[in-house]
Design brief:
This protein is an alpha/beta fold. It is 30% helix and 22% strand. The longest helix is centred in the middle third of the chain and has 22 residues. The structure holds pyridoxal-5'-phosphate (PLP).
Length: 417
Amino acid sequence: MLKKLKYNDEFIKSIAEQYPTPFYLYDEETLRENARLFNKAFEWNKGYKEYFAVKANPNPEILKILTNEGLGCDCSSLAELLICERLGIVGENIMFTSNDTPTAEYIKAKQLNAIINLDDITDLQTLENCAGLPDIICFRWNPGPLYNVSSVIGNPVEAKYGLTTKQLFDAFTLAKSKGIKQFGLHTMIASNLLDENFFVTTAKTIFDLVIKIKQQTNVNISFVNLGGGFGVAYKPEQSPLNLIKIGKEINAEYEKLNNAGTLPPIKIFTESGRLVAAESGILITKVIHRKDTYKKYIGVDASMANLMRPGMYGAYHHITVVKNSIPKNLSTEIVDVVGSLCENCDKFAVDRELPALEINDLIAIHDAGAHGYAMGFQYNGKLRCAELLLEKSGKIRIIRRAETFNDYIATLNINNW
Ligand SMILES: Cc1ncc(COP(=O)(O)O)c(C=O)c1O
């Protein structure tokens, strides 16, 4: 399958003439379409909400677009909560899921009336001590040996997140005894999975658990959060997830239990970041160097500091060469596309077949809108680049400027330079 850019080469070149490379370019239309897809897939469920994982892309302009489509925000840190507060996103439009949580974060989450999702049974007491208990509480379940998924999150038994099944029952009993009025159950087992059955099986497992919790603790769960982890077809040969089909099959499992009278009506939540935003963003970077040693290298002006996933996880990001009317007979070559960081893993692609590239050619790195800019860093004095938004109107807007040297040194406390 061919993986094509949404824009033609002329268009990208004209943007690169106005804004220095590298830069991220996000597409409002794609963001809105993806948000609507989640809402459509689960429209059968009264109260359904997709809480966009803010960590995937915390740019306020992106959050404004998504919340305008009815999405909530999944926050996991104080900074993410503060961004939401500034945007007027509060109350049950925020789900706060963190672990090893500093008390300042609980205090802010409680102050914003966010739905708080606890990662450990001891967190209930910590929350009560630092912020007081809210009316709603959710617990994150770690299924342990029940699941054996190899992913970025890791095998559940090895993963630091969530409560064991036994602890979960004790936690709901304890929370009820403390006067909590509404309860939720959360799990997030996998990351970037393209197996549709996995999401249906997970939903069914969670529904069964809701029934068991009622039987053993007499606690009524009013919502379940199935987490994120919905995969993106980063590689051309991969098939995208059919979210509508997943929603339909989850609906069928839900109806079976609901009609049998075992599962009461519950709200379903998801907290995807990647499937909502990845496809909407590309990283545009320019070829600045060619090197021919034991391998052929194409050096670009972005680095792993701008997009860490390939270097950190060996993740594949498709690359399109932005070159007007690439001649049909233009030869290709096998190259590593590299950044300038002093780390040998600073490679956007390894042994990739690309049309022959020359200095000043532009390349577009696909599916970079989630866990892209957000994972950026400054190691080696590399600065974060700008983020641009292509609005539905066709207007390009700069939604975050590139960092400067002054930003880099802004936190230093030093005299007599
Ligand atoms: C708790 C939690 N929820 C949601 C997400 C979003 O995952 P994804 O963007 O893969 O859907 C993450 C990712 O790290 C997470 O840790």
